[in-house]
Structures are given as C-alpha cells and as structure tokens.
Amino acid sequence: MKKINRSNDALNGITRRRFIQYGSLAAATSIVAACAPTATTPTTTTGATSSASPAAGGAKGIKVGVMYSTTGTIAIVEKSLQDATFLAIDQINEGTGPWAGKKGIDGQMIEKVVVNPDSNWDLYNQMSKRLIDEDKVVCVLGCYTSASRKSVLPVFEEKDSLLYYPVYYEGNECSSNVIYTGAAPNQQITDSIPFCIKTFGKKGFFIGSDYIYPKESNRIAKAELVNGGGEVVGDEYAALGTTEFITIINKIKQAKPNFILSNLVGDSIPAFYKQLKDAGITSKDIPIMAFPTTEEEIQAMGPEFAEGHYSSFNYFQSVDTPENKAFVEQFKAKFGKERVTNGVMEAAYIQTFFMAQAMEKVAKEKKALNTSSLREATRGQVFKAPQGTVKVDPDNYHSYLYSRIGKWKADGQAEIVFATKAAVKPIPWSQALYKGRTCVHKTPDDRSNSNVETKKDLPVEFLKET
Amino acid sequence: MNVLPINALSSLIHLAQATPAAKSFDPIAITNQLLNGVGIIGILLLTGLGLSITFGVMRIINLAHGEFIMLGAYTSFVLQSNFKMDLLLTIPFSFLFTAFIGAIVERTIVRRLYGRAVETLLATWGLSIVIQGVVKLIFTAQLKYVKAPPYTRGNWTPFQIGGQAIEISYYRLFIIFMALLLLGITAFLLYRTKLGREVRAVTQNRDMAKCLGINTSLVDMLTFAYGCGLAGVAGTVISSLKSVAPPMGQDYLVDAWMTVVTGGVDKLVGVLAGAVLIGESNAAIAYLINDPTARVIVLAAVIVLIRYRPEGLFTVQKRS
Question: What's the complex ipTM?
C-alpha cells in the first residue's frame, strides 16, 4: 500500500510546467540522438527554398532521395546500404569506378537528399512524402525491411514516383513504381532447397524472426522442400531482436534434422550461430543454410562460428570478377580496411548505377527527367556489376541476378559451391506456391493487374550476353 | 518500439493457429529444457541484480539500466580488441567503468530528482537515448564481436542414455555461477557491512539517517554506482553469447524489470525467486508452444500478478 501512495504523490506533485520542462527535455534528447549520426554524413539542406523545379533538370543538379535508417534497430544493416549508395553517388559525381571517363549525369551532379526514418515504419511513409512533395526528388533509393517497403508503397503509387529497392525479398509483389534490384524467390530460394536435399538430406528444420519476410520466405522454402520430396521436421520463430535461442536449439536436437534453414535477421543471427556451436552442434552435425546471413553478420559473430555453414545469395565478397575486385577495393578505401561487402550492399550499389545510366539515357534523348521518362529508361538497363552482368527486366522491373551458394570458411569469406552460369530472369511469384504465375507490366505505368497465369512450369531463363 | 505490438499480434495469431503443441513427450528433451531454463535464469538474475539495487533499494526507476549493460559489453569489446584481454579479466574493468559513469549520472541527474518518480523515469529514458546515440557515434551502428574464453567451450554432460544426453553448456553454467556469486556478494555487502547498514538506513528513513551522521549523499552515489556496475558486469558476461551493438540493452530492460517486480523488491532473495519463476515458466511454455507466445503469456501473467500483489510475490506483509 505504501508504495502505491507514494507513486500517487509523485504524480500529483508534478506541476504542469514541470511536466512540460521534462517532457520537452526528453523529446529534445531523442531528437538530438536521432539527428546526430546523420549530421556526420554529407547532408544537403532541404526545404522550401529550392523552388526551381529540379525535376526538370535545372543547373543545380539532380535531386535523389536516400532513405535508410541510421538509428534504431535496423540501422545495423541500413547504414551499410547507405554507405554503398554514397560510394556509388560519389563515383558518379567524380567520374571514378564504373563511371570512369564521365562526370555526373551529362555534366550535372547528383545531389543526394538524405533522410533518416529511425527504423520506424510510419516515418518511412512520412519521409517519402516529404522527399517527393517538398524536396521534389526525381526518385528515391531506400528501404530494407519488407515492412518499410509496404509502408511506402502506397505513397509511391499515389504520387507516381519511383523507388529503387535493393533487398532480396519474399516476392508476391509487382509494382510499376518500384525497381527491385534484390533477389526474387527464384533467384535465392529455388536453387538452395534442391542443393540442401542433395547435399545434406531430406529433413529440414525452419527457423526465422517473427515478421513478414522470414515467414513468407520460409513458407516458400517449405513448399519447395515438400515438392522436392523432403520433410519439414520443425518450424520455429523468434521475436525480432531475440538473442536467446536455447529453447529452439533444444527442439532442433530433438527433431534431428539434416539441415537448418535460417531466416533469422539482425543481431539474432550471431546469437543463434554462437549458441548452436556452444550447445555442441557443429556445422558437420547439422549445417545451416541461411538467406539473411552475410559477410557482415559473420564478421560480427566471429568466423569460427559460421565455418562450414552455408548462405544463398547473389553476391559474395569472394566473387571473382574484375568489377568485384575494384568494388571491394574502392569500398575499403572509402570506409576502412576492416569493412566487408555483402549482397545487399552490392544491390544498393548497382541500383544506383541503374538509376544513373537511365538518367544519362534520358539526358541523351533530350527528354525531361521525370518519373515516366526515368522508368522507361531504367527498364532493360544492363550493368557490369560486381556479381557479373545484370539487367533490369523490362517486364516486371525486378532484376536478372546470379544465384549462388557459398560455404563459409575460417576467414569469414565464402567458398562459392554453386553458381548459375549467367544471371537468372526474375519471377516475382514463388512457383512452388503459385504455379505458373508471373508478372508482366503491359504498359510502363501499369496500374491494372499485371499478373499473368500461365498454369505451366516456367522455364529458367538466363540473361544472354550481347 | 513499434515492433512490439506487431510481435504481440502475430504471437496471438500463433496461438489461434493452434500450433502442433504436444510433440512426443521425450523425457530427455524435457529435462534438457528445464536445464535450459537454468541458463535463462542465470541471465535474468544477472541483468536483474543491478536493477534490484537501484530500484529495490533506492526506489529509482532507472530506464537507462539496459544502456549500462550495453556500456559494460562495449568496455569488454574495447579491452579485448585493443589489448587482447581474456573476457573474464575484463569483468572488473567493466564494473569500474560503468560504476564510474553511474556515479556521474547520479551526481548530475538522478540526485536532483529524488522522490519524484515520474521525472526520474523521463530523465533516465532520455539518458538511455543519449547514451545509445553517443555510443553509435563513437563505434558506429555495426555489430561488434566479443570472443568467449576457449576454456568455457563445450558441454557438461551429467549422464547419457542411448544416443541422447542431458547437457548444459559450460558458459551457461558459468553465467549462473557468476550471478549467484554476485548475489552473494551483494547480500553480504548489504546485510553484513557498515556501508550496507547505512544504505538500508538511508532507504528506510533518510532524515533520521542524516541526523545520525550518515553522509547520505555519498551513500546514494555509491549505491547507484554499485547497481550500475553490476549491470556492466552483466553486459560483459552476456556479450559473448550474442554480438555487441548500441540497442542491445533494450532487450534486457523489460526482462530485468519483470524479474525484479515479480520477485518483490524488499528482499534481495526476491530477484532470485523472480528469475527462477520467469526463467522456468518461459522455458516450459516456449518448449510446449513457441518462443514469441511464451513471452506474451509470461508478460501477461506478470501484469496480472502485479495487479493483485503490487509488492511482488516474495515480500513480507507489512503494517502500514
């Protein structure tokens, strides 16, 4: 009783003025904390002052929105996406790297407008409105989680603007206002499940973080496993940000699978790999096949814990192409020797060049730079990326990408044990769940239902080098 | 913050989907799971202990507790990456460093707000954001890696039947040992030393204690610093189970609060009781259904419990 009285006293004791004082103090500190990291990066000041329509391509430069969280839970990943994007924009403006011999877009500089949505899905929505309406950017590079993409999608469709989205995702979406440069299900999941059945065995244990992407991705992977004659012996999810895995590991011990398929994200990844090895399960006993585990997470957990496990991705730092060698070198020169590159960062890097090449094409054709001309020019763009030659599919605005499987080595790099011979044509819909369904935009700005039901097995198509 | 309701919702959907709960009731797996519960208890106890000092003894609602855990983890990271120190050797340093920061915080912020619970809550919440921001500026948002000492690798296996074994990892055993050790030291300090007597005197009647010549402001500072130091030790010990990152403390804040509030704050043994209760029920429910649902059920149970026993389970009824 005593305690309750006391807290009531405390509540009554607050005068309105004092409440405002401390309330604003708390609000101010959170604002300072949210702004601080972005202040260190070159941010262009924005506001109502830029009344000259930059979309029309004035002398000032081309405004492009960069929307990644540099604070909050997702900052761990999105900060490196921002780094890769900044590297690409600097190379375009300075005429270095893949842009050697040119300068900017036909002489015009790319001017980045940087916002930080603080890992808050609602803020992504508000900030994309601000970028389009107030800053009048031509397009936006950004988002990482599917939740944030779903949050901004209505904005880009309603205002008819263009989002470049660099992340492997669960598919089942096909907007004509998004250019998807990460893997569709058939470029990551479809090849890895048969590989698991062949290499490890038929019994798979599925784990993931508890939100849209891991659940959908596992749903597709489970269907693929069953189609391939395998068996699902477990399906467990952990709340986002969970770092306690002993219960799930106990269930794995009991189920005795041949392999674990992991769709854990963020700091759950290092925690799971570490605790699995601590519990006495090595990669020889039960290997993990993972989608979101990249070089960055391996570095964060210590490579010894990942050694012998597998990841499926379009790109690994160890991919052997001259473009990749240059990319890794340039990235390390800009951000530090100890940094690593990974698949999502590479996608963020190449989508910036897709955008720049498209802008260049618009400028050459002497058209006004706006959403429809940029979209038209982005379709079918080809780029010699670090992972190999890739292309924006003119039908569904996803990208032709390589599909690879890497086995992690003691030095934190992947030995590539499977790779397609060329980039694979993207199919946004999982064929295991929706047989024969794909997506073709009938017109560049297609607002009708763009799904095509062929009812047949779609053949695997590779990008033909021209 | 906004992730929480989504989690809660999807967990409820889990429940509704009626997951295939009862697998074969394997006695070995169940015993293992109960042992796993012991592992969870160790972490809860370790993270809750510091809070039982700052909240239980001093009645300060410290929402920056998680950030002190994070600071302890970063201290170990810095010492390990620069001086190649063994993780266990960094424990005293993270204790001293976080206690030092705690002392500064007490002098500059908490001291001015004694007896004003809501203001303390707001101020420490703001502080937690500032500490996270500063750490992010210094170390960037990337996940950092802390190495566990090699001699804590592997499992302790009390016995084996057939191909199955009952086992618990040495590191988990180390955590529970560490937690009990700290609990013992804290109890000794609090109940067997002059300083501890002074601390309790100040808590029970500040004015009277002052009249008797106790330097209350020094006692306050030391007590708060000690609570923060314990959080730092927790951070160091936990860091090698996961990775080190600025928001890592947030995960432990809620758990630590649940532990302290469930057990009751008047007696130190309440933290142990709270940790055992929450740890084992979490482990059991997580085994029977799944992890996110277990969290929802346990949290709901704690709320109901506080409604009917606001002073916690293990508190002696007092006349007021």
Answer: 0.77
